[in-house]
Amino acid sequence: MKRLDEITASELRTETRIRGSIETARVACLLGMASLMLGGAAAPAVAQVPTTPPTFYKVFSPDAIGPGSTTRLIFTIDNTNATNAITTSPLSDLAFTDVLPSEITIATPASATTDCAGALLTAPEGGGTITMTDGRLGADSLCTVEVNVTSDVIGEGPYTNVSGDLTSSAGNHGDAEADLTVDGDRPGFSKAFSPSSIPLLGTSTLTFTIDNPVAGSLLGIFAFSDVLPPGMTLADPSNATTTCSGSGFSLGEPESRTIFFTGGSLSAGSSCTASIDVTTDTGGTFENVSSELEFGSSSTDTSSGFATAALEVPIEFLNKAFVNDPVPPGGQVDLRFTIVNPSRTDAATGIAFDDDLTFLTDLTAVGLPLTEACDPDGPGGSPGTGTLSGTTFLSFSGGSLPPEGSCTFSVPLSVDPDSNPDTYINTTSAVTATIGGDAVTGNVATDELTVSFVPTFTKEFLDNPVGAGGTTTLRFTITNTSPGDSLDDIAFTDVFDEVLPTASVVPSNPVCNGGTAVFTPLISSGSTNNPARFAVIGASLDPSESCTIELTLDVVAGAADGTYPNATSTITGLLGGEEPVEGLPASDDLVIV
Description:
Elements: H1 9-37, E1 55-61, E2 64-65, E3 70-79, E4 91-99, E5 105-106, E6 113-114, E7 120-122, E8 129-137, E9 141-150, E10 159-162, E11 167-168, E12 171-172, E13 177-182, E14 188-194, E15 203-211, E16 222-227, E17 232-234, E18 241-242, E19 248-251, E20 258-263, E21 271-280, E22 284-289, E23 294-295, E24 302-303, E25 308-313, E26 318-322, E27 332-340, E28 348-356, E29 364-365, E30 370-374, E31 385-389, E32 393-401, E33 406-414, E34 422-427, E35 432-435, E36 438-441, E37 446-451, E38 456-461, E39 471-479, E40 487-495, E41 502-505, E42 516-520, E43 523-525, E44 528-530, E45 533-541, E46 546-554, E47 562-567, E48 571-575, E49 579-583, E50 587-592
Parallel strand pairs: 2-13
Antiparallel strand pairs: 1-3, 3-9, 4-8, 5-9, 6-9, 7-8, 10-13, 11-12, 14-15, 15-21, 16-20, 16-23, 17-21, 18-21, 19-20, 22-25, 23-24, 26-27, 27-33, 28-32, 28-35, 29-33, 30-31, 31-32, 34-37, 35-36, 38-39, 39-46, 40-45, 40-48, 41-46, 42-45, 43-44, 47-50, 48-49
């Protein structure tokens, strides 16, 4: 005799029709006999059509996996057994509980879903119990419950999973049973995002791991594909790497969402990885499910289950950042705000928030008020909305953004010369807005401001603009901002555009109290050019002392007219000979006419 999970839906419906027809005839006969026994005329036929209960079954898809791989557990409630003689009735209060065998757990992410109307589905990640309650199902309909599950416990045979009974407003409908095999001859397949949470537009590395168990055999060619969820794309660059042999990744354009991977042989007891960087342009939880891992020869491909992972991208309505700290006492730092409308369908209006700057004495905003501050098209685009005002207490109000729109604006802040070096935490109020007619309260935004005696560092092209074939003098100025400690082991590097290949005048050593300056001209090697560069190492400055370094650069004949930005590395040193400090790069633009 077949088990319930071995009977096809067609066989179930056929058997139900036959039993229903017999039952209909039996009921009609009994009604007729009762009427005759009572001595009356035969009662008029009453159109009573019996009903049949729903069927309840489940499957693991696939039903065999490698250790650590993932499979989909699918429950089906089938209420479609309607014929001329037999019908089904709407069902309510659908409920069941399934306790998994101890060797099987709910995967992370569980990606638990159901299309049973009104159902409450519980499937905690890492847990072992799946529960559905309060479901509804119409006549002649079916619905499903689906949950990702996993196991890394190799079994001698299949793990049999028997659910509790399905109950409803129509009674008890029995249990459902299915088997899952965790096969030590199949490779395990898993993946993870690192980090597992990133900011909007951040980057995470997605790593796939193929693990061939010790009990396994030599693994031949294996392959999988992965379609990234909407809103997630390959980063640019994608930095695709692998420790697996074989063809490796096959990728489309950076905006592509599909990954293909083919690996070569993998011996028993060994594993390999394949990694690629991804990014997102929206916030939320991104659940990513690969295809099944296929392995073997082209004629005997076998599945080993699929891999799942989730990436969290918190939806930040408001973000803030001090973009150029550490800043010395008496210096200036830029505070940048970014506002993102989290709604995909409705505009956000009346956007407002406050930011109290009194966390640091005499920290003051410069150049406010800033009108039309929030412009989703960026500087120079359409007129923005909202006004940022204040000096030590900032207020933004009147902003608006289209669906999924964003804007960024900055304000310079002056740091008091008497500020104590330290790291200070600054938090805004919660951002508020009206979205889709509803008042919405968003997140607070927090960032740290570091005040430190970092060196200040500037550079300037003194002959600017300059003509092609001419020369320009470049001056660097370094200042030790500490009033009490020397700044030692000062170092920086500057790499020049190819329009500045040589120097006609270089500084004499030592520079800045014992430092060494080295200029290296552009070096051509075949089709490769190593650009000219200038480096300083080992310089020192007394407390509050400044020094300048100059060199004269040659502009190549035939240089194209234009603006050539130039920025150094960061500048580093040891404060008091012990504390490492790092100042911001110095930059200037050279204009060639």
